[in-house]
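User: Quick one: structure for sequence A, then sequence B.

Assistant: Sequence A:
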Amino acid sequence: AKQLPENRNLKPPVMVRTHGINIARWHNEGMAYAWDLPEVTHALWLESDVRITEHSVDVLARRSEQYSLVGPDFYDRVPPGTYQLRTQPGPCDVHDRIAQCSMVARRNYLPMDEGFAWWLEAEDLEWRHRALGGAAVIGSAKATHPFSGSTPLGNDPIRDAAIEQGRRYFKEKWGYNAPI
């Protein structure tokens, strides 16, 4: 499968990682920059180690006109030509999450909740999109996430504290334990 090139001549704003870490805020600032460009019609959010083909990006762009948020099938659980639609916030199998790679059309964009500084901001976003029209896993769009769930705990006290804060905030907001 053809992989997307690393650089497509994009000029996103540079977000410097500092002690005041807030990934959701950085995401929102980057999206505000992108939406100021009239030619930007869709946003693809993905973690740095996700690999997705150009074909899959095209499939997601077409399907994002139908559903609030769409993502690829990472584990071949959804047959090609079909989709799995979730319209209610709540836990799902960790293999059915699309938080690590998802696409949204401009009209469906929601900012990330900046109460999540470093962890679970994308899961929260997926759950909010479910409630607004559905989050769909698209079977014809494939991607891989080779290092999924590999964030080690215990060696970075600042990150560990942010992760624990995110877990507490998620439970407070949704009434469920964090999905990861």
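Sequence B:
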Amino acid sequence: TKAGYRDAVFFLAESLYQLRNYKTCIQYFDLLTSIGNNEQKQHALGRLLALSIEMQNGALGRKCVSRAVRSAGANASPELQYALGKYRYRTNDLEASLTHFNQVTKGSDPYLKAQYFGGVILLRQGKNEPANTAFMGIYADENAGKTNPEDIVVKEQALLALARLAYERSDFDLAIDLYN
């Protein structure tokens, strides 16, 4: 059946990705952007964006950004919004990147990572107070790590960012407390 074939292509592409057989999995993820259901297409585009960064393939990245914006637009999954944000961050398009990170749905797996990247972008733009607020939001999130173990690492990175910001404000007591 058509659905069975789609699923087989999906699992083959994902398996090849996990095995780091990037050149071959790109072919299957690309096929999936044409034949997959909406969820599979968005997953494939996210993986292709990550692969374009990993393999430093700008042409692949630009093609996937264009496809993602055309096909998913405002209905993009949180994972695809995160992948678009990360790709645009890596290509130094900070404003577009921040827009994508801000569209990642609260409570989704990539939410805290997106918020962290948003804080980093604000820092790069010299907006220390909004960045501090972003990092505080991550650190204060009580659900961090309950469903996504990676959130614990993100929370620790946010704490380090808060300590650095306190140090830069010459609030040394707070910085020491945060570093400890």
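The CA atoms of residues 111 and 122 lie 17 Å apart. The first helix runs from residue 2 to 18.

User: Thanks, that's what I needed.
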